Amino acid sequence: MTITMEKPLPPADDDCCGGGACDPCVWDHYYAELQKWRIEQAQVKEQALKEEQSKNS
Length: 57
Prior knowledge:
This protein has one helix and no strands. By secondary structure, it is mostly helical. Helix content is 54%, strand content 0%.
């Protein structure tokens, strides 16, 4: 069984000031973590597909 990271949750409405001056913004962090999660999910899916194909060979 592969252990994967949990899908990140978006910031709460009051986590972002909305001013656009924060660097990095809480949304920048969220989108970076979301991208990492998506990449990991694709890798898990690819590995599962490879394992399934090897079982059927």
